[in-house]
Structures are given as structure tokens and as C-alpha cells.
Amino acid sequence: MHEEIYINRLMDLLGRLLKDQRAEIDAAVDIIANALMNDGVIHLFGTGHSSLIAQEAFMRAGGLLPVNAILDERILLSGGSLNSTINEKQEGLAAEILSGHQVRSTDAGIVISNSGRNAAPVEMALEMKKAGIRVIAITSIVHSESVASAAPGGKKLMDVADVVLDNYAPYGDAVVRIPELDSAMGAASTVTGAALINSIFILAAEKMLSKGSRPLALPSGNMADADYTRIQAAMAELAGRIKYI
């Protein structure tokens, strides 16, 4: 029964993603399309489970090239979940991480954080803006509004991004309450975040085509009949700008 509640609640949230924030979606699509049409790279960053959204859009079958996932073991689950939780609150770490990536003024950034309160995502957005690029946030507005900032200066991600996309996850992320348990179950932000980022990439591709520009859509690396010629040539050119290509 509760698993059906979970799926139904996800469906409700997914139905709101594009319908209830159309102006914000359009603004995000403009940023992405304009960057790609000007030979820019889309830089993605998240900590902990939010990094999964960055990885979802990186070198992804059905995704776009060029996309650069900003990955660092100190803020990833693979480096230890407790370490990630500690390090995402560390002042100055975002600048150090970003310094290992090539960022140009024609690029764009997407920073993902469900709570939007910790130092790493807030400072990453600010560092990206210092580099001259526009920044899209994917966050839970209701969660962010329910907590105090843990970042220096008291800012949250939604306060510093150029465009804010709401993932509509509730406060605490989980959407299913089982009476016998102390905490709710069934997180929403990974599902809605992945849907959001794939949707805006699809819309950006359509916008580029409408302006006479052909985006680089990635086929699966496990298709026998796919033509990788254009992709391989582009990847060779982008090797210095996409760290983990």
C-alpha cells in the first residue's frame, strides 16, 4: 500500500515540475541553449545525493554534450557519507574544487542542492558567477525556506542563483509516512531532479534546433547501430574542458 502512495506522490510532483514554473523553466532553457550555441560547456555540481543529478546528466545516453560534472571525492558518497556531510559545510572548499576545472565566460552552471543551505553549493554558485557564467539552481524551495543557512554570509542557494528551479520535494525530502516509524520514507528529490534536468536539456535542444543550431545528443554506448563519429570528434576537442571525459 505505502509503495503505491510513494509512486502516486511522485507522479503528482512530476506533473507540477513544468506546469507550475514555466517562466523559470524557459529562463533556464535560454541559459543552457545560449551557452551551447556559443561553444560553451554546462558545468554541474552537487554534494551527497544531489551529486547524483549532476552524474545523471553527465555523458548520459539521451543527454547532451558538452556537459562537465564537477566531481570530488570529498563531497561524494563514494568518499564516505559522513565525510560528504561534513565537507559540504566547509567554507572555501567549493573554490578549491572549481579551480581544478576550466570555466569560460561562454559556459553555464547548474548547482543542485535539496536544502540549499550548506556552504559548498552556495559558494559554488557564487564562484561560478565570479567566473562570469550564469547559474541555475535545482533545489527544494519549501525545504530551503524551512531551515537557516549554514553558509557564510547567511545566503542559500536560491538567493544567489540566476534562475531557481523547484524540485518540489517536501521538507525532509521523504513523501511517505508510515505510522509505526519515526521518520518518513521515500525520497523525492532524486526522481524530480533527474526529471527536471533531462526536461530542460530536451527543451534546450529544441530551442537550438529552432535557431538553426544542431545540438550534440548522446546515443547509448551500447548500441550496435549508433554512429559515434560526430560525438568522438567533439569529445577529442573537449578533452581539456571536461575533466572526467
TrEMBL record:
CDD domains: SIS_RpiR. Keywords: Isomerase. It comes from the Bacteria. Residues 32-213 form the SIS domain. InterPro entries: RpiR-like_SIS, SIS_dom, SIS_dom_sf, SIS_GmhA/DiaA_subfam. Coiled coil: none annotated. GO terms for molecular function: carbohydrate derivative binding; isomerase activity. GO terms for biological process: carbohydrate derivative metabolic process. It holds the Pfam family SIS_2. NCBIfam families: PRK02947.1 (NF002805). This is Sugar isomerase domain-containing protein. The lineage of its organism: Bacteria, Pseudomonadati, Candidatus Hydrogenedentota, Candidatus Abyssobacteria.
